[in-house]
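Problem: given the chain below (401 residues), write out its structure.
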Amino acid sequence: MNIFSILSALRGLAIGFFSPIWIIHLNDQGFDLLAIGILGTVFEVARLLFEIPTGTFADNNGVRRSIMLSYIFSMATWLIFPFIGITWVCVIAMIIWALAEALISGAFETWMSQVTPKEEFSKRLMRNAQVLIASIILTSLLSGHIYKFNSMLPFIFVALIYAIMLAIILIYLKSDQQIIKNQKKNTPKESFIEITGKSFQIVFKHRRILNVVLAGFFAALSYDVIMRYWQPYLIQIGNSKEFLGYVMAIAGVLAFILLHFTAKAHKIIEKNTLLSLIMVESISILMIFSTAFGLKAIGLVAISFLLSVEDIRNPIVNGYLNKFFPDSYKATLFSVNSVTGAAGEILSGIIFGLIAVKFGIIATFIVAAIFLIPSILLYYNTAQNTDINYSEKRDNMTFKS
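Solution.
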């Protein structure tokens, strides 16, 4: 088992513990749907502000150090989380969590790309996601029961898992010092402004990159609604809090199966990436409408699919973008992609928080489905403009100092 699989397995255990219950915990602490939406917006605004600086930090100081800091701040987040009944404490937890996510966003993928052939990168991402999901399934089945027994325990377990991950990355860093020194010799440092400016220039100069990044904005806007309100929705239609863990586990199993097939078909997906993304978003629209208008059983199946869909589309998107990102700015460029997603999630918290309070969760889901249509149109437009051979131009996306 390689270092990526070990860290992904542990991270999956942590996510499985907190993901099914953290919004319910906010609700139990007295935060209503609008407040939860605003807190989510605080998280995304902070993440938006942190994304580019942490990306340039990773490019200049090494992705492994960025990941190490992410684990430290993740541990701090979940140690604070049991005490978020006070609003300002909750806001601090959200900001620290955002910093942790920004530090690992793009850094983990960049590290993986450094040791993986380009043609195998998306497949490696999918296989790694399978390990993550298998671990999520294990702990998500227990999460609701542990939370019912003691509301603090799941968050304490999460903090302990991140402490173990920190110990592993420190050991790995110690044994990896020579590689890091060689990378520093071969890669001269640039300022934050230089790296940021050149990264944005790459994005705006190449239509394929720009369209896929913009499509991610609308996808984030829509999928964030599901992630934010699936728990209150299932409670609203008569399910218990303990049942939420089982839904997360079902979503994990579904994602694991779908990732298995997409990894098997990665060569076909590599040749038809944009068509694959159009299919994913189209199916998601159908699932969201099924959730809004379907029977209770249909809603459960649809929610399970929607919880798994980002695990399917993210490796496809990152594998596609990795073809066009030069190595010297890769972490920052992945962060730029994440920034557009964070911006979408910020607007999602404001727009859909108001819709949820005024019109209910079902109406919120319907509007979210409509916002996926621009993503499909952007992928289609990109597929129609394939006259430039970007794979040949990728290595020319560099700049003179």
